[in-house]
């Protein structure tokens, strides 16, 4: 079995690494396969780069950082794999040799058939083993090659042929399983259509999507896929985003709507202005980031690598010891054969591949459901989470705040309050600014505007100092009771002040996501505790938390306060922080698992978080958590099975209880079982029945209200 090439114990890369160069994508090309850049897969004849940090007789770790993809056909049917074809030939020749030896008296023919089986099976791992040995590297293929040569030397040609067949079969199954699971992620790129209709000088021209430039206007007809990210300039339709974000409900698209590559247009034609080239649109960026981040390993994966790596030379030493000591005690032929059996029995094949196959399969399945998991470390730690901290704005709410009330102070007017607030917010990017500017568009901008983080804004308007901010930063004065009432109703309230005198209060409400209560209820059913962290005031936060079923609330928090609270919560166990990936970046980075919601097209969200939910449906969170837990259980199952096989086979083979043929059969069967178990993680975790959960959430919400 392949030796893990990336199993060193070097420090993990920083969580918030800069955005890497976009993938060179050719949408019209066939699916691509990925070659491991750090060890390049020696078993299949590709020379590893000299600077590779580890050896292998093939890459036993599918999470190695992938090299730039080479255009070639993606994994198809099992019989389309070259490795499987050689394994099938080896098995056919081995079976024919065994039958010939048993049914006829022509040993030469049987020996020739068995030799052919050895040659066909050995072709998949012996060349890579020899190249690794020339560079002074030992791998699992080394153990198998020595065992096969030793069996031939002892006259056990049939056992050598069986070893070559079964080991080549396990190698081929691993290669194909990993290729298929990794291909599931890269298949996202195939969602880009092969052709796009661009509008230039009033004429429609069909081009390769790779030729689209930022600013080009392209046409998306009914039923067509969107060629690249853009903004709708004209037309009205609905978009099916399920293949990209995992959301089943179509979204409406009108002028000004942001659209993403790979989504399917509904019944109306749309004219879209491209905001990204195909090479760096949302799909390309997603695939690129996740593939690169897969190099990060979880604790179980690093444990498997740490054990498997030194085990290879250790097995050689033990086998040599068994042969030497046994020969001194008599019957050297018997003890040398037992040493060869120990070589096979102690090979850490299943151990080396158990976690990587699970990681790649689980990440690929998650990506097809609109969940980006950035490597094995993120997947594993997310599966251990028992507490989820949720931001309010943009996570539990729609992030579309609107002004619901304006309360002027005595002697002031509603217009004066809005004009002053809009003047301060005219160049602000805060979510509340959009609501105020929508209520009072095109204001006269204030001068010398300065943001006071976590509190508000200050500036100068018509020569007078003005302030806008939360109660406490700005004294509500005569509006104190009014402000309290608005907050009790779940509205965020800001106060406006001119020359030290309060002008009025503005109430802004950001409605809850309709699925928020359902998502929180689903988390509670799985034993997860939920906490709300928000910069909003205590009254508003508790009013909204009660509606979705969250009991623990921490309000009036600045970004650094959220990070501090997450660090405190981690003392009681692994914590996941769910936020928008921008204002919540410190808390996302502090949490064991940072989760960004609605991250499609948002660089900051994808980069800051360990896990990104591409869509805006909060129900994807409990599904993603269930998927990670299931993947972690599969990892542990495979590790226990692999360790159990080693602990049982080694002593039985050393004392002669099991012969070479039996050990080969059990060892390779265990490897196939581990691979098959890991591939199970590639199945998507089913969602809870929508009708039932929605009804429960609705009833809970009515009770709380």
Question: How does this model look, in words?
Answer:
The chain starts with 31 loop residues before the first strand and ends with a helix. The longest helix is centred in the C-terminal third of the chain and has 35 residues, at 620-654. Strands 12-24-23-22-13-20-21 form a seven-stranded mixed sheet, with helices on both faces. With 705 residues, the chain is of the alpha+beta class. Among the domains are: 193-280, Distorted Sandwich (Calcium-transporting ATPase, cytoplasmic transduction domain A), CATH 2.70.150; 373-388 and 516-534 and 548-614, Rossmann fold, CATH 3.40.50; 402-509, Calcium-transporting ATPase, cytoplasmic domain N. The chain has 23 helices and 24 strands.
Question: What is the topological layout?
Answer:
Elements lengths: L31 E2 L36 E2 L10 H22 L3 H16 L3 H9 L5 H14 L3 H30 L9 E5 L2 E5 L9 E4 L9 E6 L1 E4 L1 H4 L5 E3 L4 E2 L4 E2 L4 E5 L7 H12 L5 H31 L2 H14 L3 H20 L2 E3 L2 H7 L4 E5 H5 L5 E7 L5 H12 L5 H9 L7 E6 L3 E6 L2 E6 L10 H9 L3 E7 L2 E9 L6 H10 L3 E5 L4 H11 L3 E3 L4 H11 L5 E5 L5 H6 L2 E5 L5 H6 L2 E3 L6 H35 L5 H20 L10 H15 L1
Parallel strand pairs: 13-20, 13-22, 20-21, 22-23, 23-24
Antiparallel strand pairs: 1-2, 3-4, 3-5, 5-11, 6-9, 6-11, 7-8, 7-10, 12-24, 14-19, 15-16, 16-17, 17-18, 18-19
Helix pairs in contact: 1-2, 1-5, 2-5, 4-5, 4-9, 5-10, 5-22, 8-9, 8-10, 9-21, 9-22, 10-21, 10-22, 11-21, 13-14, 15-17, 16-23, 21-22
